[in-house]
Amino acid sequence: MFKTKNDLSEAVRTKAIKLLNERLADCIDLQTQTKHAHWNVKGPNFIALHELFDQVNAAVEDYVDDIAERAVQLGGVAEGTARSVAKRTTLPEYPAAAADGRSHVEALSSALAAFGAKARKAIDESGDLGDLDTADLFTEVSRGIDKWLWFVEAHLQADR
């Protein structure tokens, strides 16, 4: 833990940093899954999905940066190496065989939903710690993830 003049207690900061690094791993995993979908999607909706997945990736990349920087602001280390992420992520593995648009939309919407649920839980956890700034960060992330989930899921919802 690095020294900081942040007025949150060291105990609160330590717990918040742990929580931030847990969600950082999930968020980095989500970003790589999104980029995987962007690179590999095929089919008649290719260009629309290719561009949508790239937009989702750009937003998720911003969330990664915000989460990592919050951990460092609190005196911690942002643990974002590939090995650290692989050990820590709680997201399900992205299906390597996905090729057509529908398969990627199913897989990516599942990943977005799983991460959104974790972000919402992190709002409560950081609020319970008394770190309302971290709770606010996770609220912003959750709101954004819900928007991107809507954009992606819309490709599945025409059939009722």
**Overall geometric form:** elongated
How many domain units? 1
Biggest sheet overview: none
Give me the CATH superfamily.
Ferritin, core subunit, four-helix bundle
Termini separation comes to 52 Å
Helical residues, percent:
over 70%
Q: Cα-atom Rg, whole angstroms?
A: 17 Å
Portion in beta strands: under 5%
* Proper CATH architecture: Up-down Bundle
Helix segment count?
A: 5
CATH top level label: Mainly Alpha
Q: How would you spell out the order of helices and strands?
A: HHHHH
Uncertain stretches: none
Task: Explain this structure.
The chain is an all-alpha fold and 160 residues long. The chain has one domain: Ferritin, CATH 1.20.1260.10. 73% of the residues lie in helices and 0% in strands. The protein contains 5 helices and no strands. It has helices at 10-40, 46-73, 82-88, 101-129, 132-153. The protein starts with 9 loop residues before the first helix and ends in a 7-residue tail after the last helix.
SSE order and pairing:
Elements: H1 10-40, H2 46-73, H3 82-88, H4 101-129, H5 132-153
Task: Record keyword descriptors for this entry.
single chain; 5 helices; Ferritin; elongated; mainly alpha; 160 residues
Compose a concise summary of this entry:
The protein is 73% helix and 0% strand.
